Amino acid sequence: MELGTARTLASPEGRAMLAALPPYSPETAEHMNARLRAHGMEPDLAAAALTQLALRHEAASKLGEVAQILLLTRTGLEQATRTVVTAHHAARFRAAGSTLVADLGCGLGLDSLAVAGLGMGVVAVERDPITAAFATANLEMFDEARVLQRDALGVDLAELGADALWADPARRDVGGRRLSDPNAWSPSLSALLERARSVPAAGIKVAPGIASEHIPDDAHVQWVSVDREVVEAGMWFGDAAPEGPGRSALVVVGDRAHRLAPDGGGPVPPSAPHEDAPVAGLGAYLHEPDGAVIRAGLVAELGRRIGAGIVSDRIAYLTSDAPAHSPFARSFRVLERVGAGRKALARAVAEREIGELTIKQRGSGVNVDEIRRGLRLRGPNRATIVLTRVAGDHTALFVEPVADAP
Question: What fold characterizes domain 77-260?
Fold first, then answer.
């Protein structure tokens, strides 16, 4: 998209034009494009308008109703934080007493929206001119917010009067591949850490799979999942981390958020090795910890809370004789234990006339797609099977999910 086209979309007239268009439908997009051009709209602007409608349609599940009034880019949407999570970011800054948050590398301005929505000032800094134009339009409703088109590291936080910092560095290269080295991010993690320590409160969004050697011991690192999908990890510092250095998991299910952290024993440095949970004999129930709990190294903590042990050394499945009814895990009733070999699995599936099969695996070392291709799924029945190790032995378990407690 050309910058001129982006600015036209970001103008009051451009946004009014988008608001007047009917909802996006792939089936009618070509017809709508032709109609806009027939009414005298330039081809580039018509294509850009339809792209906005398509992106808003796609963003609804991630951003909610607000997506319908935002200006979006493909890259910005891919990196955008879910609305339910930006609210938790903003709440940390409000609890810290922050008055002006510098949002470095603000993208489309979604975190800035959440901060301004809680009454705090925000300066959103974005280098890309098109993205900055869209962020300006997205934040226009708040007097407390302004956008600077500038390199994130080219602003003086003291000059801005910022007493807090939020940063969401780009973690992909120009080809769209994920960058595992935090110092290859833009801005680099090392540069952002230096900035974070210069203000009373700070947060940095990082990749959920960040290696422990890149986690500083003065950070509180929180892994976040939304409806069982791990979406981010955040490093928090100073007044934005009242719990102090360490690790925690934030599990968002629907409109409710649940936090899990080590209970007692004093703070544990976030880079410390994860605690090993005790191995237990296979019980009547299998518990699958939420991904955020696993990433945060809190499987042993969860096991203590629900009275469960792991099924085998270094396998993140817990087991006990009672369902967990916990937001931090899904429970399954163990129905039957069968052989894990391919022939034994095929025979078990055929005997039960299973036509629809959910396969879960952890620590089994098998390729689930290859296993599925080797099974003849025929019949009226549905089933769930777990391929894992129990006390070190490769095992297949037929299980059924237990309904979550109300």
Answer: Rossmann fold (3.40.50)
